[in-house]
Amino acid sequence: MLLAPDHITEEGEFIINMGPQHPATHGVLHLKIWLDGETIKKIEPQLGYIHRSIEKMCESLSYRQFIYVTSRMDYLSAHMNNQACALAVEKGLQIEATPRAQAIRVLLGELTRLSSHLLWWASTGLDLGGITPFFYAFRERETINTILEETCGTRLTQNFIVPGGVMYDIHPDFQKKVKDLIKQFRANYHEYDEILTGNVIFQNRLKGVGYISKEDAISYGCTGPTARASGISCDIRKLAPYDGYDKLKFDEVILSGGDCWARYQVRMAEIIQSLNILEQLIDNIPEGDFLAKTKNVVKLNKGDIYQRVETARGELGVYIVSDGAATPYRCKFRSPNFSNLSAIPHIAKGAKIGDLMAIMATVDLVIPDIDR
Amino acid sequence: MNTPTPYSFASLATGIHAWLRQAISNDTLLQVTEMVITGVCLLVFLVLLCFFLGYMERKVAAFMEIRLGPNRVGPKGSLQIVADTLKLLFKEGLTPNGADKFLFNLAPGIMVVTSMMAVAPIAFAKNFQIWDINIGVLYVSAISSMAVIGILMAGWSSNNKYSLIGAMRSGAQIVSYELSIGLSLITIVILSGSLQLSEIVESQANGWWIFKGHIPVIIAFVIFIIASTAEINRAPFDLTEAEQELTGGFHTEYAGMKFAMFLLSEYINLFIVSAIAATIFLGGWMPFHIGSLPAFNHVMDYIPSFMWFFGKTFFIVFIIMWFRWTFPRLRIDQLLNLEWKYLLPISMVNILIVTAMAIFGWHF
User: Fold this and answer.
1) What is the predicted ipTM?
2) Do B245 and A1 touch (CB under 8 A)?
3) Residue range of the domain that includes A173
4) Tens digit of pLDDT for each residue in B120-142?
5) Residues 6+ away with beta carbon under 8 Å from A285
6) What is the pTM of this model?
7) What Cα–Cα distance (Å) separates residue A239 from each residue in A82, A215, A219?
8) What is the average per-residue pLDDT within B166-192?
9) In a domain, A3, yes or no
10) Which residues in A have their CB inside 8 Å of a CB on B?
């Protein structure tokens, strides 16, 4: 609204600023949109509204501490962010988490993925104008959060992982509750199909909208479900297994549609895959220590480490440069949402305003992860 | 039908009229007094109705969304909506700096007035109608189409880009869907041979049109429900508001009582389209009769006519609320496609069939 006149290039062009406070941007994302009637001509994402310089903060925190700052990046994948940092530190120390800790990490990670995908499903319905699905998803999400709260003490940002393992052992009720959750989820899953997936209006809103080709997805650096919907195999759990994912049986869901509907289906299938992983592991948590022995002050050798994990939104890379001190010399995160966002101006060109909501919903952006 | 039963509203109205006639000798003054009384009664009734509809909407939404809904203020939360109205009354009615102040403040008034005007010809019960105009159907469709002026005015004068987009959407939407509403109403006008709502109700004494008119009338009924949901801007056709896209659409900039007036007019419109659908297709206040069962029919007659009317109306209100809490929103081009490529051609063919039916007397 405060644009200088020379920014308006053509007669009849209409510029709106969507965000930083807008119901559909799910945070403080600011999109400057050039409109021609209802059609989007150009989008310019403007970042920095929630920049907290997490990377810089990491430089002054010890290797045990900096893990927890990352919970506030992609807050819906907080556990996976912590896992990535802990794995990076473990790589530097050349140790591995104990088998029990690995199983607990994977279990909690998949629970987090489930709850993140549930929130995505809820907000996708919400963004497209259906309010009811939200409450159905939150019914299951509440159960997951209760389980996480019992074991980790918190519901959203678990902060449960330490280099070499996890902070505490699991709650005695954990296994029973997760089994109940799986039962509850499988029993209720048909409701998800009935209220949203099977709805004709909903399908028409997603099908053929926001197409990303395989080449585009690669060149924009899309990862996670967004890229897998365009036919790219990019699941880090398969490509570079960590914490024992290689011993588990699950499918990498890859579709070739590339549109919002394909992205939707990928995530829905991933929910089922996460349930499968939970089912395999819940009765087979190895006995033993939940924490490997490490020195009190963790110091990494001089050099650099790169570790990546698959969060609910894609590939999170942690790059640590160490100068041998007790804090990282430089810390850099390759966050999935930043790359996924960069594809939006390209795919939303020529779409309607309503389509932009579908695109943003199915790319599933979490804004604090973009700015960091 | 012209002999009012002792307990009907008509006898009440006649009694008040006779009493006023004794008190006021001047004819014009009498008429004005009666108009004022009717207007005040109508206002109170509509506000109470909107309270009820607001409460009903919340409870229906809660029922659909596996939650409880309002349950704190008053018994079962029934006074929640009163509390909310009080809150809105005390809120500051902001007018944005760049807004066209006159039009900005006029728009909510236009919305409410047009909604309330359309209530006039509706037959609430047997012999209970505010204004039995002989072109009732035409009157209602003419008045209800004026609501678009209020929306355009609100959107344009707000000096907000989201509001402007919302207003432009509503222009396209309401003008389009009026066609389908008109055409589906015409089917019954053809069958009953009258534009007067009271006569349309009378024509259903031996069976409601939805039963008498075979499949074409059912099609017209479905089209009417879809198109009127779009006409009153309710989900899944709430593109003018579309809070996820336009942060509230045409009423983004409104606050306090001005905003409440938009809400009021939305609920009155909801009531009107449901009442019209009930009157035209479901027999208005006519009780449900089955031809060969006189005993059953006699029992049905014992249910007062206003209960029949409100029962049918709230059934349709529930259906429209059900839409809102189940369906996601359409996109603007899909919305216009639905009207121009599906509803309108179907209505046109439907009208031909109904006309043939009326000419050859194929209906019951």
Assistant:
1) 0.82
2) no
3) 53-371
4) 888 887 777 777 888 888 888 88
5) A100, A103, A104, A107, A170, A175
6) 0.86
7) 20, 19, 19
8) 87
9) no
10) 1, 14, 16, 22-24, 35, 38, 125-132, 134-136, 139, 195-196, 199, 201-202, 204-205, 352-357
